[in-house]
Amino acid sequence: MPLCYGMFAKYKMFFKSNTNFGEKTLHIFNLNFGPQHPSAHGVLRLVLEMLGEQINKAIPHIGLLHRGTEKLLEHKNFIKGLPYFDRLDYVSMMAQEHGYCIIIEKLLNLTITTRAQNIRVIFLEITRILNHLMAITTHAMDVGALTPFLWAFEEREKLMELYERVSGARMHAAFFRPGGVSKDIPKNLLNDIYTFCGLFNSRINELEELLTKNRIWTARLINIGFVDKKRALSFAFSGVISRGSGIPTDLRKKTPYESYSLIKFESPLGKKGDCFDRYNLRIIEMRESLKIIYFAISKITTGSIKTNDYRYSPVPKHIIKNNMEALIMHFKYYAEAFTIISSEMYIGVEAPKGEFGVFLGTNNTNKPQRCKIKSSGFLHLQGANYMAQKHLLADIVTIIGTQDIVFGEVDR
Fold first, then answer.
1. Is residue 337 part of a domain?
2. Which domain holds residue 34?
3. Do 58 and 41 touch, CB atoms closer than 8 A?
């Protein structure tokens, strides 16, 4: 039994000899997978109950990255708490910020300008492509294919540069803000995004040439990690995993936000609910994201990128220049943020990994009294035992990869 399937793996095999026939019976043993294993997609420890090479049970042990984000948010005002959301799913940064901004906007009854909505949609779909490129290529690398990772990360680098140009940061952008976005998009950025989208479809084709009909790839994914519709519902799966099992759960269509209600796009469904279906859906969703970006670029208008209610947004420099009262409002916005009257609300958005939800409870203060985050990865991980049973040890890498787990949001 190779030890590469779990660093510091400790296991014992018990044999029972039959004196009459000299046969040996293999008994169940436990094997540690992770938490340092590179294919665990974070600090995941799985205790695998093995019968030879076959998995009888897979018990996830989490909490090794726990940082108490929800409790920390209760001690930060509504503006200073926003950057914590970049650090939850650190592959889908702006999608996490978006969930937090939307719930604050609902609680404050803020109206978002059309320009800000379209800018958000463009970068939400760029974020979706970023996430799926990471999910597919690291999954392929876990299975044994290195080339897709190298090819796709060249495209991912181009998208990270778009992040940097609009926010100043490659990862922790803090670009979405309650009431709009922090900065307007730089000159020529939309042209560069449009050009990228025109070329990226060919890059998806190249990725598919490497993987989709590759006999090793299909053998490792087809009929592995099967989840039927009933089981997916019972586990509260969302995103690609639930759609892979044939459940139409796209919140962009079910409960539209921003300008998604105006956009025609497809939310593909799988047939089998296995790892190969989930891979195919991520490929198709990247193509659909390109359509959405094209639409948002074509409909973008001139105008403000933030709400004009300066209680909830920074005061522009030209107003501050000769106005002491405006300067005080500007200072108070960053120092104290704003107060939300007693209320509580839950909002879910369609993040790349599934439903990302935020519950906020407030009590006439400038800080959340209670902040509860619903992460899709936490719920998907509970299905690891069901998805892994009766599969071989090598298949657990495929199953974890197709779940697309990031431990920042699991161990929040």
1. yes
2. 3-61
3. no
Concatenating the DSSP letter of every residue in 353-412 gives TEEEEEEEEE-SBSS-SEEEEE-HHHHHHTTHHHHHTTSBTTHHHHHHHHHT--HHHHT-
Q: Is the pLDDT of residue 25 over 80?
A: no
Residue 233 token pair: 């519902």
Q: Are residues 74 and 57 in the same domain?
A: no
Burial of 365 (0-12, 13-18, 19+ CB in 10 A): middle
- Assess whether 117 and 216 both reside in one domain: yes
- How far apart (Å, rounded) are the C-alpha atoms in residues 312 and 339? 9
pTM: 0.89
Alpha-carbon span 183 to 166, nearest angstrom: 7
| Phi, psi angles (nearest 5°) of residue 168 | 90, -5
Radius of gyration, alpha carbons of the chain: 24
The continuous run of DSSP H or E covering 293 comes out as: helix 275-299
Please give the angle made by the CA atoms of 409, 231 and 248, to the nearest 5 degrees.
75
85 and 38, same structural domain? no
Residue 315 CB coordination number (10 Å): 18
Instruction: Give the integer Cα–Cα distance in Å for 358 and 368.
Output: 11
Do 276 and 238 lie in one domain? The reply is yes
**b (16+ CB within 10 A) / e for 323-333:** eeebeebbeeb
Residue 301 banded pLDDT, cuts 50, 70, 90: confident
| CATH, residue 356 | 1.10.645.10
With beta carbons less than 8 A apart as the criterion, state whether 357 and 347 touch.
yes
Is 401 within a domain? no
Place of tokens 């089981």: 231
- CA–CA gap between residue 375 and residue 85 (Å, rounded): 11
Question: For 70-100, how does the pLDDT look when each residue is reduced to its tens digit (9 = 90+)?
Answer: 999 999 999 999 999 999 988 899 999 999 9
Question: H or E element: which one contains 351?
Answer: strand 343-351
